[in-house]
Structures are given as structure tokens and as C-alpha cells.
Specification:
The protein contains 3 helices and 8 strands; from the N terminus they run αβαβββαββββ. It has helices spanning 2-16, 31-38, 91-101; strands spanning 22-27, 46-53, 66-69, 79-87, 107-115, 128-132, 138-139, 156-157. It has 162 residues and is α/β, with parallel strands linked by helices. The chain has a 6-stranded mixed sheet with strand order 3-2-1-4-5-6, sandwiched between helices. A two-stranded antiparallel sheet has the order 7-8. It binds guanosine-5'-monophosphate. Residues 29, 54-55, 61, 84-93, 137-139, 143-145 line the site of guanosine-5'-monophosphate. Guanosine-5'-monophosphate binds at residues 29, 54-55, 61, 84-93, 137-139, 143-145.
Length: 162
């Protein structure tokens, strides 16, 4: 995980070094990833947080996205890097991008730790992706199942019984 995080940070640095970006983390799942990645970014940036709910406590998508926490400052004319834990159907990302685009940022790009390409119903541009993974439910490195497992220092596939 750490070597891939460093590689992504390298790509992000090349692009954002002189842009004074605002890094927006999508809570809660991306809190570990964003904390790791921004500590490799050695240039000025600000951080903001958004929280959306899409799954409740379920492992399958409801298709509904609700904004539960908004960013605290204006992003007009700022270069936004949106950091997601995982892109599955892409519906959450689509919602967030539409929500942020109307605030007229200078640019808006996405960094996702994990991507399940087989499940995409909304094909969004993902500029920075840590790992493409199969269509399995995973936990760890910030990702949860019913609030648990976020503290695992690795990504694990959850075996659902019953
Ligand atoms: P999407 O809208 O792309 O279908 O779903 C994105 C959100 O669903 C993610 O931000 C994450 O909260 C949740 N999600 C999707 N797949 C998984 C998974 O395999 N494990 C966990 N823990 N959450 C997931």
C-alpha cells in the first residue's frame, strides 16, 4: 500500500506542485488514504472534507446519495483534487462531481484508492487510481463493514456468511 501511495503522490506532485490545490477527502472511507498521501505532497495545499452516504450499512448500493457534510470554504477558481476510497458503481462520484462543478472550480480531478471497473454504471474519468480490483466487497485501510475494520493496515476481502 505504502509504495503505491508514494507512486500516486509522485504523479499528483507533478501535476499540482504550482497550483495551490484544495484536496477534498470524501469521508469516512478515505481518511487514512488522504492522510497518507498528503504527507508525501511537499507543496502548499489546503484540505477539506465532505461526507456522503450511499450504502447505509448494506454491502449493495441503494443508488441514493445524500450529502451529509459539506466543505467549509469556497472552491471557486481553486484546483480541486477529490480523494475517494473506492469507486464502485460510480454513482457517488458522479454526484460529488456535479455538486462541485457548479461551484466553478479552476479544475476538478479525482484520485481513488480502489476502483471496481466491472461495476461502473457511470463512467467517470479517474485521473489517479491506486488499484483496480475485482467486484468483491473489501475492508481495511479506511474502508468499513458496518463501521468496523477501518483500522486494518491492509485491504482484505470480506467473506460474508449466511
Ligand atoms: P459507488 O457510488 O461508486 O457505487 O460507491 C462508492 C461508495 O460505496 C464508496 O465510497 C464506499 O463507501 C462504498 N463501497 C463500494 N464498494 C465497497 C467495498 O468493497 N467495500 C466498502 N467497505 N465500501 C464500498
Amino acid at each position: 500500500m505504502q509504495s503505491r501511495v508514494r507512486e500516486l503522490a509522485g504523479q499528483i506532485s507533478e501535476e499540482y506542485r504550482d497550483l495551490d490545490p484544495v484536496v477534498i477527502a470524501v469521508l469516512k472511507g478515505s481518511f487514512i488514504f488522504v492522510a497518507d498521501i498528503i504527507r508525501h505532497l511537499e507543496f502548499p495545499l489546503t484540505t477539506e472534507f465532505m461526507r456522503v452516504s450511499s450504502y447505509g450499512n448494506q454491502v449493495v448500493t441503494t443508488g441514493e446519495v445524500k450529502l451529509e457534510l459539506d466543505i467549509a470554504s469556497s472552491v471557486a477558481n481553486r484546483h480541486i483534487l477529490l480523494v475517494e476510497d473506492i469507486v464502485d458503481t460510480g454513482l457517488t462520484l458522479e454526484y460529488l462531481k456535479a455538486n462541485l462543478e457548479v461551484r466553478r472550480p479552476a479544475s476538478l480531478k479525482v484520485c481513488a484508492l480502489l476502483h471496481k471497473p466491472s461495476n461502473n454504471v457511470k463512467i467517470s474519468n479517474l485521473e489517479f487510481v491506486g488499484f483496480n480490483i475485482p467486484n468483491e466487497f473489501v475492508v481495511g485501510f479506511g474502508l468499513d463493514y458496518q463501521g468496523y475494520y477501518r483500522n486494518l493496515p491492509y485491504i482484505a476481502q470480506l467473506e460474508l456468511t449466511g
